[in-house]
Each structure stands twice: as structure tokens, then as C-alpha cells.
Amino acid sequence: MQSASDRHEYPAHWEADVVLRDGGTARIRPITVDDAERLVSFYEQVSDESKYYRFFAPYPRLSAKDVHRFTHHDFVDRVGLAATVGGEFIATVRYDRIGADGMPASAPADEAEVAFLVQDAHQGRGVASALLEHIGAVARERDIRRFAAEVLPANTKMIKVFTDAGYTQKRSFEDGVVRLEFDLEPTDRSLAVQYAREQRAEAHSVRRLLVPGSVAVIGAGRTPGGVGRSVLGNIRDAGFTGRLYAVNRAFPQDLKELDGVLAHRSVRDIGEHVDLAVVAVPAEHVLDVVTECGEHGVQGLVVLSAGYAESGPDGRERQRELVRRARTYGMRIIGPNAFGIINTAADVRLNASLAPEMPRPGRIGLFAQSGAIGIALLSRLHRRGGGVTGDTGVSTFVSSGNRADVSGNDVLQYWYDDPDTDVVLMYLESIGNPRKFTRLARRTAAAKPLVVVQGARHGGAAPQGHTVRVTRLPHTTVSALLRQAGVIRVDTITELVDAGLLLARQPLPAGPRVAIVGNSESLGLLTYDACLSEGLRPLPPLDLTTAASAADFHEALARALADETCDAVVVTAIPAIGDATTGDAELAQALSSAAERVPGKPVLVVHVELGGLAEALSAAASTAPQADRAAPRTAGRAHPFRPLDFPADPLPEPSDTAEGTPRLIPAYPAAERATRALGEAVKYSQWRREAAEPGKVPEYEDIDERGAAQLIDGLLARGQGLTLGTDETCDLLGKYGIQVHRALHAPTPDAAAEAARTLGYPVALKATAPHLRHRADLGGVRLDLADEEQLRRAYTELTELFGRPEELRPVVQSMAPRGVDTVVRAVIDPAAGAVLSFGLAGAASQLLGDMAHRLIPVTDREATSIVRSIRTAPLLFGWRGSEPVDTPALEELLLRVSRLVDDHPEVVAVTLEPVVVATHGLSVLGASVRLALPPARDDLGPRTLPTY
User: Fold this and answer.
1) To which H or E segment does residue 907 belong?
2) Each residue of 95-141: pLDDT tens digit?
3) DSSP structure class, residue 920
4) Given a cut of 50, is residue 387 above it in pLDDT?
5) Helices marked H in 717-810 — which ranges?
């Protein structure tokens, strides 16, 4: 007899890896007929109390009939999912479709009963919440819209799972049982709950890696040198506060210590729990190490070993197996091919990286996908690299290598509420999940600055070793979308460090007004020009002359900071002539003292690095208490990182500065670098203010969403990848209140005359051949044709100039009011999602690339900003005495296009060109729409780890 589960294909796409509340991972998959023994073993480990809560009666063991029922599913009306760790069940959930009478049913019945059972040892880890998300997604896929669950009143944990999920629900009590019914349609609250759980779980999974209580370095060699031995020494020399072990299967049986560290031949031989394993063995041995770690209960891995996806197809498959094996045991991986991780917190002091020295503690979180770039950033942050002085250190550092598992998104989740991190700096070569990154970046940027430099911008593909979905959007568009999310986008690692130094120790400017004071007129004028180049509004520079004393600088800075017309101050300084040491030290102290007395405005220094000025800045900083900030030093070994910024007087700290940390004034060797960093801070500060009131997506009563859906379904029935005809385009856009001016084909002069009589004069005659479309500059358009004589003459001119009518494809269109020609586009990118673009039609957008972009759905505030963000925006607002056009009508059009694409993801491309915006109203003169099945989205549905 054929079993039920044999009649339906196994739904492999329901398999998923998830991060649990405590940071561990589990595998969720459908239960099949092959799971009978696992189910019985799982049930035997569940307590009698949990069994009673599940079955409402004592139920010590499963009968053969029970086992058959719980392992045979049709994957439609009866579905069971299991959460597994190490291949064994730790929890199960199932639904059974029921009808209105509560009895088993099939479609179209849209309700199902749901029940959970979680092993007692794994309760409290968020397993049931994760299973509810996944079984809910499965049910929606099978057209089930509502779940019902019956729970004993004493089973408060399970009641909380349902009530905390955020779904719309009803609750009743009858016959001693609580009955819960809830709709499965996601709500704003259910999504918020899901995102909050995701953040807590992923942040905890990263915390388990960055804050371990014990570390084993696997692959530490017996002889000096080598990756494993180097990392072991780095961890020991940094003063790691936890337990440290050296592991190598080649160690002699009698070897007990290596460099003062307990030595073992295998992780299994360690008699205590190990939180983190740093793996530095050849790639062919890594899987065996992962298995040993998993069986020993290790929580996470940092894999330094190379020879994976960066080395070709064989390495890519080796990398897939590495991730699968680690997740089987609930472990997360940084790497492979990673540079390592660092945590400078005094109670951790972990340098599990190839960096030979521990960086100074500080408030900057640093993420780099490249180890080489990561160490360059560490060096620039803490040395005089590039002439920038700064004593702002690092809180945590992660170099992800091939980022097969832990990615920048995970680390962002950790830094979001990490109290030790004030600023996040990221070097990215690829973004695996751009939609999620944008969502996380927006939330993080609302709390703390996030500065990103993206490498491999123009290569057209991700670096070897990075498996990501490639975007079709140009880099400028991606950059604009990141800025929309509050990301401070810079182009070089120098700019990354410059911005980080400013944001880590100075308050955000309230506006773009900049005061400039200094002892060099020329340097002041250079700074003034640099401010203008960055869109700042500098006040006339105040020249103190080269004879200015430290007291003069103090007084001038204090006066500038107290000026209500100033939002920030740039101090320009050239070194004194003669006995520079004393004068420079006094100057540093004077500026710091003045800045502390008005803590709400940022102060920057532009200096010419001559004489002793830079040394004075270093010396001034070194006079501040260092005991809590300096990393431990190995005896007889000088620390390479030097304090380089101005310290503040020991006065009360402003509210946005870490307690007990002196406020530092960043100094820059060039005016351009200082003003560029300040310009980014000004734009970020403005984004923070606007993000506090994000706007809303307006509702329009004349939108026919259901009618548009029916039309789209009918059109897609013809086939996929369909570009709509003129009438279909006008019909679909019309359902969203977007009216397109009719254009009638005119294959002959007589047809043109007939079209003009139908539309009414005056009319326009246009050639719509691809090489002439939207190219009025080529002469393929004739406007304001007042009568048939002018129309026929224009028709003759066009055919004489450009060829036969069948080549020109001429059309006749009624004249629209004069205005500014613009273009509106929307496209669904497989990686970034739906994007709305706007610009002026013609050369401005085609030649200069002057387009603005926003992620869909667009709010009313974003529609207002996108219109004003293009460089040619003055043409819309009365440039040189012209009449301003109807920008509110333009903003409404943008919002309607955004709604269309957001409501119907099958609309994969929309182009409105030209859109003539007049003094009153606008006219859409050309439109095209493309329909297709939307690309799969990886930001919707239940929480999952990326598949590799």
C-alpha cells in the first residue's frame, strides 16, 4: 500500500537553518517516514509533564499507530516539521487541516490545528517560536489562512509562544482548555516581533564568538611560526581573561604545555567546556576538527584555514560541506579564510587574529571582509597613517574572510545594541542580502553612525569565495540606496577612518554652518573653499595671524563655539617658529579646554605637519589617564599604537560621550579631508533628524488594487516576460490614477490627419523608432501643429529626413501644456529589490547620470526629497526667473508608481517618459510596463540563515 508521504514530492525548500534565542543554530525540515526511530528517541527524552501538556493526559510512550501518524504526511493537509541538532530531533510541530466542524478536511478549507512538542532540555531557546514562523509560512503556501490551538491553562510557556507572535487572534476558554485562533496573515506587529527575535538571536550568536569564556587554538604547531602558533601567541600576549588551550593531534603524548598554555592532542581531551575554537589546520582536515568540536559542545568556530571557495569549484564544495557540518552541531562560523576576531574589552581581551598586537580599546566597531584591508584599517586608526592623528580605538574587530556563515548583517545585529560600540566602520566587497542589510543599516544608523566603504565596486562580480546574488544596479544607484538607509558612504579607507575619528569623539553638527579660525590666512582660505566643495556653509575665516598665542586660540575657539550662527568649528594651525615644543603643547591644551566648555558642537583641526605640532598633540593626549584604555603589554615589548588626539580637560562629559572617556579633537593633515568628514557628519545628522519622522505611504481612494491584480493575472496567463502594449499599459496605469496621453499610430499622412481630427488640434507628430524615441534633439518631433496643412508638411519633413514611415513608426499625440520634461522609472532588482528612480529627461539623466533613487515603498517625505535631490532640481523651482512647476503633482505621481510596484511585484519595470510637469498639473506622454514573475525574495517569510 502506498503511503501518504509517497504520493507527494518532498518539499526540500522548507528546509532551513535558524539561529535560536541563545545564539545556537538548529535545522528545521519536514518529518518523513524515515524519521520513526528519531521520533521515538526524541519522545523518550521528553518529560512526563511536557507529554501531559501535549496530549492532555498521561502518555508515557508512542504507539506504533502514533509513530505512523506523526511520520506520514501528505505535505498539504497534514504537515510535520522537526527542529534538529546533530541530526536528532529537539522539537516538533504539526498541523492538520480541519473544516468548519473541526474534523479533518482538504482544500478549500483554510483552517488547521497546530500543536508543538519541545524537548525539556531545549525549552527557553526560542525553538517553538522559530517553528511557528516556519509552519505558518508552510500553511500560507498551502492556502491555510488560520491556525487553531488548544492548550491547557497551566502550559503558560506555549500560550506565550502564541500570544507573543503578534498575529491577530481570538482566545476562548471552554471545558478546561484554552482555545486560541489566529490569522496567519503577517501584521506590522508580527513582523516587528519577528525582526526583534531575529536581532536578539543573531546578536547573541555573534556575542558567543566575540565574548568566549574559553578558547582552543586547533593547529598550534610545536615549532615557532605558522598560523596556529602565531594566533596562540597573540591570544596569550593580549592577556585573554578566559581559559586558553593549544590543540594539535601531532603533539607528543607527554606534552602538557606549549608556551605556557595547556596542550592537548584533541578537543575531546579537554576536560572542560570550550566556547570558541580557532581552526588553523589544512583544509582537508577541517571537517574532522568540526566534528570533534561539535561533539564536544563547542559553540562557535573561527576558521583561518584557506583552500575554500576562493580556490575554485572544489574549494567551493568544500566550503558548503564545512557550513553544513558546523550547522549540524548548532555552531556558527567566521570564515573560512578569515583573518580573525578581536575584542578589546577589559573583561575579555581577545586577539584571536593574525594581528601581532592588540589595538587600543575604543568605541569603534570594525568589520572587514578582507584581512589585508582589516589590518590596514587597524593600523590607520591607531598610528599616524596618512598623517591623521587619532587615539580612538576599537571595541571589536571581525574579519570574515569568505563569510560563508557569519556576515556583516550578523555583526550589525550585535553592534546595534552593544554598549561598547558608538561608531561602526565596515569594509564590504559584497552584500549577500542587500534587502536585509538595508533594513538593518537603517535601524543601526538611527542609533549610531554606520560608515561603509565598498570594494570591488566596478568589477561586475563578487570576489572569489563570496557567493552572493549580483545586482544589476549601477554603483551610483546602490550608493544612493545606502544613503537613503542612513549609511555614510565613502570611497576610500582613508575617508572611512577620517569619518570614524570625527564621529567617535565629537557631537553631531546641528547644521552646515562652519566657523574657521586659525593662524594662517592661506590655510583658512583653502579650508573655506573645501567647505564649499562639500556643500557646507562656511563663515568668513578668522585669521589670528602667525603671532597668535595659545590663549588667542582658546579665546577665538570659545567665541566661535558660543556663536549661534555656527554649527561646527574648523581650527587651522601652522606650527610656531622657534621653541615649538612648549607652544604646541599649550595650543593643544588650549583648544581642548575651549571645546569642553561648549560640548554640543564638533571641533576639528587642520594642521600642517611640520615641527613639533603632531608630537605635541600626541604628548597632550598621553597626559590623560590611560590605565583603563591601554591594552596590556608584554614585558620588554613596546606597544606600536600611540595616542595622537587632543584630550579634553577633566570636565563633565556631554551626554553622547562614553562615561570616563576624554573628548578627543580629531586633527587632519589636509583641509579637504577634514571638511569631507565634516560634510558626511552634517548629512548624517540631517538624516537622523528626518528619520525621527519617517513619513507615511499615503492611501488614494481612486486606486483599484483588485482590478489591477485581475488584469495582471490575465496578462501573465499569456506567458512570462511580457511587455505590455499601449492600450494595456494605459489600462493598468489608469487603475492607479496615472493617466497617459493617447498616442495614435500614423502609418500614412492620411492616418495622421485622421488621428489629429480624433484628438483635436494642436497636436504633436513624433517618430517612435528606437533610435529616435525620446531624442527631440535629433529632430524626430514636431510640436504645436495647428492644422492639417502643418501636420502633412511635418510628416513629409520627417520622412525625407529619416526614412520611410515603417522605419519611423510615427504617432500623433495631443499637445500637453509646456513644462519641464522628466522621467520616472521603477525596476525590481533581484538583489536590492524594488527601486524608484527620478530625473530630468534627456541629457541630464542619459549623459550626466543625474538621477535620484529610493527603495520602494516610498513615503511622502521621500517623494519630496527625491524631487529635490537631483543636481538639476533648480529647473523645477523657478531657475533664472522661470515659472516653478507643480512639484506636488510630480510627488503624487511618484507615490502612485511606488504603490503600483509595491502592491504588484509582478510589475517588474515601469518607465514614464517624458513626464511634462507644467505650472499646474503634469502630462505623462509615454509609458511602458513589463510584467514577469517576481524574483524570489530572501527578506520575507520566516527567519532563516542563508543557504550556501
Assistant:
1) strand 907-917
2) 999 999 989 999 899 999 999 999 999 999 999 999 999 999 999 99
3) S
4) no
5) 726-734, 749-759, 788-802, 805-808
The more confident residue out of 652 and 170 is 170
Q: What average pLDDT does this structure show over 293-312?
A: 94
Burial tier of 792 (Cβ tally within 10 Å: 0-12, 13-18, 19+) = middle
Task: Give the Cα separation of 743 and 927 in Å (integer).
Answer: 11
DSSP category for residue 720 = S
Q: Which of 467, 407, 392 is nearest to 441 (CA)?
A: 407
DSSP 311: G
Q: DSSP states of 129-175 as a string? A: HHHHHHHHHHHHHTT--EEEEEE-TT-HHHHHHHHTT---EEEEEET
Helix axes 788-802, 749-759, angle to 10 degrees: 140
CA nearest to 340, candidates 281, 296, 279, 404: 279
Q: Are 155 and 179 in contact (CB under 8 A)?
A: no
Backbone angles phi, psi at 112, to 5 degrees: -145, 150
- Rounded to whole angstroms, the Cα distance separating 546 from 612 reads 16
Q: Is the pLDDT of residue 460 over 90?
A: no
Cell of 357: 598586537
The answer to whether residues 158 and 56 touch, using CB atoms and an 8 Å cutoff, is: no
Contact (CB, 8 A) for 594 and 554: yes
Query: Which grid cell sits at 697?
Result: 505611504
Residue for grid cell 548629512: 683
Please give the average per-residue pLDDT across 615-640, as a whole number. 37
The residue written with cell numbers 514614464 in the block is 912
Q: SS3 of 30, please?
A: strand
Q: What would you measure as the largest C-alpha separation in the chain, in angstroms? A: 107
CA-nearest of 359, 351, 361, 317 to 336 is 317
Distance CA 735, CA 727 (A): 13
Phi and psi at residue 158, to the nearest 5°: -70, -35
Whether the per-residue pLDDT at 581 is higher than 50: the answer is no
Q: Exposed, middle or buried by CB within 10 Å (0-12, 13-18, 19+), for 350? A: buried
- Are residues 663 and 620 in contact, defined by beta-carbon separation less than 8 angstroms? no
User: Bridge partners of 146?
Assistant: 111, 183
Q: How many CB atoms lie within 10 A of CB 72?
A: 17
Of 390, 333, 516, nearest to 946 (Cα)? 333
Distance in angstroms (rounded) separating the CA atoms of residues 18 and 816: 56
Cα 880–885–888 angle (5° rounding)? 140
CA distances from 59 to 8, 50, 66, 121 (A): 31, 10, 11, 19
Query: Do residues 251 and 265 lie in contact, with contact meaning Cβ atoms separated by under 8 Å?
Result: yes
Q: Contact 675/495 with Cβ under 8 angstroms?
A: no
Inter-residue contact 832 to 853 (CB < 8 Å): no
Amino acid identity, residue 908? Answer: V
Q: b/e for 94-118, b at 16 or more Cβ within 10 A?
A: bbbbbeeeeeebeeebbbbebbbbb
- Which of 84-88, 460-464, 572-576 has the least mean pLDDT? 460-464
Average pLDDT over residues 571-578: 77
- Asked if 812 and 765 touch (Cβ cutoff 8 Å), the reply is yes
Measured at the CA of 394, the angle between CA 456 and CA 605, to 5 degrees, comes to: 85
Phi, psi for residue 872 in degrees, rounded to 5:
-90, 15
Chain centroid, CA 163 distance in Å: 30
- Distance between CA atoms of residues 842 and 822, nearest Å: 8
pLDDT band, very low/low/confident/very high, at 225 (cuts 50, 70, 90): confident
According to DSSP, the residues that pair with 740 across neighbouring strands are 924
In degrees and rounded to multiples of 5, residue 316 shows phi and psi of -65, -40
Q: Which burial class, exposed, middle or buried, applies to 387 when counting CB atoms under 10 A from its CB (0-12, 13-18, 19+)? A: middle
Q: Please answer whether residues 567 and 509 qualify as being in contact, where contact means their C-beta atoms are separated by less than 8 angstroms.
A: yes
CA angle 540, 544, 545 (to 5 degrees): 115
Is 808:772 a contact under the CB 8 Å cutoff? yes
